[in-house]
Amino acid sequence: MFVFTALSKKDEGDHISPDMRGRHKKMSDLMKEERERIRAHIRSFPTVESHYCRKGSERLYLGASLNLATMYRLYCETRHKEQAVTIASSTVYCELFRTEFNLGFHNPSKDRCDFCVSFENLSLDEKDKQKHLYNDHHRNKARVQEKKIKDKEESRTNKKKLSVCFDLQEVLMTPHSNASVLIYKRKLNTFHLSLYDLGSGQAVCNVWHEGIAARGSNKIGSCVFDYLKCAHERGVEFVSLYSDSCGGQNRNKYFLTMLWYASTKFGFSQIEHNFFIKGHNKNENDSVHATIERVSKHLDIYTTPHWASAISAAKRTKPHYIVKELDEHCSFDFKQVAGHLKNFDLDVDRQKVQWLNIKSMKITKENPNIVHILYDYDARYHQLNLALRIRKVHQKVLRSIKTNMMIYSLFVKLKLFPKFTINFSTS
Ligand SMILES: [Zn+2]
């Protein structure tokens, strides 16, 4: 028997392959190694974080051209190249992807509202308790959309009124290609902020890459400021801006500083910034972004200027998209300007500014230092004075004043204080 085995191992030359008795790996070890290879393969794809759920979410997103079937096909291709004898099934690959990774293929839909989803899953009792919050949420959602429709109508007939909606598109990967050799490569993130004139239907597309700037409030503010400058030059006096309520980009003190600066510099009669309710951000920019996605799907794009060309050619009908390719000189430092303003924290009633609840902000020509803030589209305006430092009265001081007042009134009641009389007679 041994002789037959030895002979069967003899290859075409005189070499005999080594004796493998006792050296075969156990099936469980093989599976362990295979699972490790799958993990490494999943980790080899470049990911991006989402624009919509930065806060509190660790979820990362894979390129839009990928899906689980494609990833598994690529895995099999790699293993075939390695001349692997056994390859894990797609079930094992998918199970590992779903149970061990927090990865998604598309940025979360704008249609999905976390608040609405969690409300739908509450018990009847809990629903009853939170009904008023749910109603407020949907009332404000409807109000901002009604306001946008009204502004849109006014802008169509009044040239002094500009209503504009701005939004960041999902990150555009560069290079952008379906060639599998490029799928695993680290991509350069290209950013695209579109500003859509609701009156004329004209979109202006600002394009830059991560080597020039991130997509923070300074860059977004700079793009909007440049847009407002052009609007001022053509005689616009009333501005109504609409955007999502992303705290890192639009709803913060630096973006407000930009609005204050634009208002002061260009003398707009009124500049207003309205925020869509989180999770209900559908707007006109979505169609701009969808057109760009559709047109670029089968294009090979290798640089940011290629993206700019693809975007400018994306819309076949008029008005065509106006594309602005930004360089490092196109940024203002609104963070530095904010340092010259004195107050972003307390309103004139000494109430803390609730940045995360702001639904709308307004600055008028009469006093650009006063920001009129709405926390609810049907409630009153709160006023924030940017030029006046307001100090918060410490609770300890307030308590001590109250105690002293109580002691004083008690002493007066008990007639322990002598009566003071002041004689003003001039005898
Ligand atoms: Zn909702």
UniProtKB/TrEMBL annotation:
Q: Which residues does the UniProt record annotate as the domain DUF7869?
A: 214-337
Q: Which domain of life is it from?
A: Eukaryota
Known InterPro entries for this protein?
DUF7869
Q: What PANTHER family has UniProt attached to this entry?
A: DNA-DIRECTED RNA POLYMERASES I, II, AND III SUBUNIT RPABC2, PTHR10773:SF19
- Under what name is this protein listed? DNA repair protein rhp54
Organism, scientific name: Plakobranchus ocellatus
